[in-house]
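Data deposition worksheet. Section B asks for the primary sequence of the deposited chain exactly as it was used as input, without tags or linkers unless they were present during the calculation. Section C holds the resulting structure in C-alpha cell form. Section D is free text for depositor observations; keep each observation to a single sentence. Incomplete worksheets are returned to the depositor.
Section A, Depositor: J.P.
Section B:
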Amino acid sequence: MVLGIGCTARPGQSRNNKTGSWRVFYPVLDTEKCTKCGTCQLICPEGCINQMPDKSYEIDLDFCKGCGMCAAECPDKAKAITMHKEEK
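Section C:
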C-alpha cells in the first residue's frame, strides 16, 4: 500500500487488522442501560460497534482500540458504556 500526502489510507483497511491485542482499556456495554440510540455506532472510528437484528448493539473487541469515544458520547441519561482496564 502506498500512502499519499498526509498519510491517508484507503477506506476499510483497519477492518483487516485486529487492534485489540495492544489496547489498554476496553468498553463494556450494559444492555440494561442502553437506550439503543446508536450514537456509539456512529462515533466509533473503527466501526467495531454493530447493531444486531434485535436492535441491540455489540462491540467487536478484536477491532476495538480502546479509545473510549463510545463511552464519552453515550448519552448522560444512559451511560451504558464504561471503560475497563485491560488485564493481560
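Section D:
The chain is about 10% helix and 20% strand.
Residues 2 and 9 are 8 Å apart (CA to CA).
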